[in-house]
Amino acid sequence: MKETERTYPKCTYCDLPAPVKGLCRRHYKKYLAIKNGTYKKRWEKIKSDKKLLERKRLCDKIYRERKKAGIDTTRKRDDNALVNQDWRKYFNSWRASSGRAKKAGMELHNKYYEYRIEAINKYSNGTNKCNRCGIADMRVLDIDHINNDGSQHRKEIGNLNTVWWLQKNGYPEGFQILCRNCNWIKEMDRKQSQNLERWSD
Fold first, then answer.
1. Stretch (H or E) spanning 90
2. Nearest to residue 163, comparing CAs of 142, 184, 182, 147?
3. pTM for the full predicted model
4. Would the pLDDT of 171 be above 90?
5. Of the N and C termini of the chain, which has fewer Cβ atoms inside 10 Å?
6. Is the pLDDT at 183 greater than 90, yes or no?
């Protein structure tokens, strides 16, 4: 099944497609920057930095010369397609090739595991072991909800990961460390007792 291409009206300030508020991606970013005050802060930063100011003047000069010569100044990709026409593909290709995106992803990954080890250390009282069987392999240790309210808790915190939520809230009580086997056994015991209560009535 072929994907149908979306057609957008033209931007208020240029001829590019305008998917949001009648603006293309470049002008919408500028609109948000002005609205949030970051546009003014960035300009103050450029004015205070001689290298950035010189670079901006050079770019503006090249832009004016191209406009005067009738050259299309729209930013393009390698395949000569307008960035705004297929923003999602452009973003994915940038993320795959950008060293900055990879570095940010690695930093986030490392911070997550740092917080995870910190949480395991906190809820195991420094032993870093399962509270039932005593296994000390960090790869199989899980953070368990003592009161079996994990599903409800995950709905309350939304998209936020449990580890990030625990770190943000100062590691509150109501959690313990179990290995995945013991965690699954605990869940099976809970379901079995629940079914016995249901059928006994």
1. helix 87-97
2. 142
3. 0.51
4. yes
5. N
6. yes
DSSP three-state, residue 23 = strand
Q: Could you give the CA distance from residue 63 to residue 81 in angstroms, rounded to a whole number?
A: 19
Q: Measured between alpha carbons, how far is 191 from 197 in angstroms, rounded to an integer?
A: 10
| Number of C-beta neighbours around residue 28 at 10 A | 17
Alpha-carbon radius of gyration of the chain:
27
Using alpha carbons, select from 70, 61, 69, 73 the residue that is nearest to residue 15.
73
Q: Are 117 and 138 in contact (CB under 8 A)?
A: yes
Closest CA to 145 of 190, 109, 108, 112: 190
Cα 155 from chain centroid (whole Å): 19
For residue 81, the SS3 value is coil
In total, the chain counts a number of residues equal to 201
Q: Could you report the per-residue pLDDT of 97-145, keeping only the tens digit for each?
A: 777 777 888 888 999 999 999 999 999 999 999 999 999 999 999 999 9
* DSSP 8-state code for residue 68: H
Count of beta carbons in the 10 Å neighbourhood of residue 182: 21
- Which amino acid is residue 155, in one-letter code? K
